[in-house]
Predict the structure of Epimerase.
Amino acid sequence: MKILLTGANGYIGMRLLPELLENGHEIICAVRDKTRLPLDPETIKKVTVFEVDFAEEVNTESFPKDIDAAYYLIHSMSGSDNNFDKIEARAAENFNKYMAVTSVKQVIYLSGIVNEEELSKHLSSRKKVEDILYKGNYHLTVLRAGIVVGSGSSSFEIIRDLCEKLPIMVAPKWLKTKIQPIAIRDVIAFLYGVLDNEKCFDQSFDIGGPDVLTYKEMLLKYSKIRGLKLWIISVPVMSPRLSSYWLYFVTSTSYKLAVNLVDSMKMEVVARDNKLQEILNIQPISYEEAIKKAFLKIEQNLVISSWKDSLVAGRISNLKEYIQVPKYGCLKDRKVLQIDNPEKVLDNIWAIGGTRGWYYGNSLWKIRGFMDKIVGGVGLRRGRTHPNQIYTGDVLDFWRVLYADRESKRLLLFAEMKLPGEAWLEFCINDKNELIQTATFRPKGLWGRLYWYLMLPFHYFIFGGMIKNITKKEVLV
């Protein structure tokens, strides 16, 4: 079959793509920015990549027409705490316009469980998108999932942050809310199982794992698996705003996403039946087994995708706006070192950030990350998805990868921390085997310039120590 995979570079899309390819399907990956599709050279040869933003004006002229099925995996929840629902509705309406000029037979949409009369804004938006897609000229299959548990999923990473960092939690009453988590591997199995299955046409199904748990039980089970001691004290009164701040400061989530998550955590998300399990003969694994499998992937460095790499988890929404480092009106710190082994130095550059740190003054980087969190920034907790692989669009702590090309020996980062201006950090190795490290800052107003000059003493030590340590043999991977 010829399948259109929207959101191909998202958390679910990156997990579903290998399954579709392994089963011999022809895949068209629909993404807003093709440079943000982190596929290895062999995989990229097997797919067609098509750039389209479904939230923008519709232009069907070059859109692929001869498709048999499509996966709708477009979400915008963390992009804004005010208008993500309008963006999602517009994208769904535009998607229908695109589908109207194709030969598509089936569309599969991954949504959220909606079994409450009063829905959160997040779940209400998912339901509205579902209603819009049902108006399309195709057979729709909707899978409604609760919390998805897997390496790199937002739910797993938030639980991981909470349990690994807080032995004692004073938590709000929504920890008593019941949910039905499902493993990412089972979500992929259901998504593939309904493909071209006429029994699933024009229907909506709830999908979930075998366990119905409270958030508190999920945290305690995680701690038990990890061998951690955890005490949870529930308090009857904690405002949604306070809950959001609590989640934001303790975990790597953004504040905007924390607000929407807290809003949703008050709602029970329990599957109403398991009829799709019977139709497809799929037996989902338990929550505990899902946690164990997630850590197996992490330990083997096999995490395919992470929610943290989503653009809406950071400051910028379009990489192309920042890919050109400005030359005028900027302040720079440029350092050059002659190197003997470019490939090994390149290995070090490609391993920067996360648990490896920034090669010099890591405690200062941590302090800067904490200060960023205090003022509403992304902080330093996002880490990185893979220890020594970098793709355009990835996050490296509070940086975003704008360009990463080992062949041209160049890595360009953009700062997503809160700043009175815009900052870039670039590493490149030229034909003379010189490592060039350039920090560029475009200040906004007088305060921006004052900030730069106040930070100059720290820059002298941090950037100077960084380039020297990147070239040292003892820090090579």
Summary: The CA atoms of residues 139 and 198 lie 9 Å apart. The chain is about 35% helix and 20% strand. The first helix runs from residue 11 to 22. The radius of gyration is 23 Å.
